[in-house]
Structures are given as structure tokens and as C-alpha cells.
């Protein structure tokens, strides 16, 4: 499935637009990263793309069908989203939270079947969290909770995956494993859109990158073309250097001020 946003703008009631003129596309087999300073509306953009909040202007298409016409069930079958934060309202087991991802595939008043629980356990295994199956979700750490929500999105079985800062609460090891998983999911044919504060992560796994700042997309295109010392310096208001390492990886650093 292809997810396309055309000339989107968004504003909270009675306020100026958070951003406008946003046009981008997420294609199967590709990772699109969205970078930008705090407060630029990256999370809001993902919520629009997921159909959780309506844009003020523009439209969102899923395989040329307007997202507004799909309805909640079909939207959830097509698009899964992992939020940056999530507050539990009940002490469900972690497994129960993951199996909730199967809801779009259940009939009205139907309960999850054994196959749905198998899919949930498979998603937890993929995320390396089978040991949390019977742990209360409300008692998990922020990092564990993020991995559980990621597993829920995998159990959902959607072709489009939206990830809001998917590594923000994870330790170094789980960051690396999660980035590798995101890349592998795209390689298996999913269309992935993620927000991140780390240009290094975009360099590592993204095919395309968009820069969101000052209410507009400043650039969108192939990651290597979009991310430059100049564009990153302008985006974050710092002097940024980009280093190509011998192992093929790319890292960004901030230039030290001269004493």
C-alpha cells in the first residue's frame, strides 16, 4: 500500500496552523524519517496520517482512496501506529495489550481466537519480550511499554506502519535491535514512516527523509541528499558535522566551540 499526503495543513481550534503545505509519500519497502526540532508538530503529522485527527486542508490517500472515506475498521487494517507515549487505563497483561492489535480483524462482539493470541505471541517474540506476557502493562517500564506497543502494531498486520520516536525510551541495545527490525519490516514490504530526533538513525535505515520546521517541510527526498551539514545546522541551530565511518555507517556531531 502507498500512503500519500497532499498539501496538508493542521491547526488547533482558534489557533494558527501548526504546519501547512505538507506533501509526502510512503511506499512499500521504504522507510521515511521525519526530523525536526521539538514543538514542530511531528507527532501531530503522524496522527493525521493515521486518521486520528483530521487535517484542516489537503487530503490523505491510501492506494488512491481518500482516508476520510475508509472508515475506522479499514483504516486500522491498513495503518498501524506506535505512539511516543501511552498511559494505561487498566492493568491488562502485556499479552492482552498486544492482542488488542487484532481488533480490526474481529467481527462485532467477537472475542480474540486462539489464532489471534498466536499472532500476538509471535509479535512479542519478534520484539524479544515473551517474558513480559503475563506482566501487568501498568507495571512495565517506559522502554518495555514501547516494545509492547510495537508488538501490538505488528499483531495488527497493517501494511503501513507509523512510528512516533520508536527508540525514545529504549536503551542502547534495544535501540539498535529496534532499528534493525524497522529496516527488516520495510524490506519485507511494509511502508514505514517514523519521527526521530537522531539524524544518525535516519542515515542508518531510511530511504527518504523529510525535514519539518517553521511550519513547513523544509526538504523531502533521498536521505543522503536531504541530510547535509548545512541542512542539519539550519534545522537545529548548531554547527553540525557529518562523518562517514570506515564500517559504512554515518554519524553526526556538533562542532566544538573554540575557547
Explain what the structure shows.
By secondary structure, this protein is of the alpha/beta class. The chain has a single domain (3-254), classed as 3-Layer(aba) Sandwich (Rossmann fold), CATH 3.40.50.300. 32% of the residues lie in helices and 27% in strands. The chain contains 9 helices and 12 strands. The protein has helices at 42-49, 72-78, 94-99, 114-126, 142-156, 172-187, 199-205, 223-226, 229-236; strands at residues 3-11, 17-26, 31-35, 57-62, 65-66, 79-82, 160-164, 191-195, 208-213, 216-222, 240-244, 250-254. The protein has a 6-stranded mixed sheet with strand order 6-7-8-3-9-10, with helices on both faces. A 4-stranded antiparallel sheet has the order 2-1-4-5, covered by helices on one side. A two-stranded antiparallel sheet has the order 11-12. A hairpin with a 2-residue loop joins β9 and β10.
What's the order of the H and E elements? Answer: EEEHEEHEHHHEHEHEEHHEE
**What is the averaged pLDDT score?**
93
Unreliable runs: none
**Distinct helical segment count:** 9
Which word captures the global form?
Answer: globular
List keywords for this structure.
alpha/beta; 27% strand; six-stranded mixed beta sheet; 259 residues; 9 helices; four-stranded antiparallel beta sheet; Rossmann fold
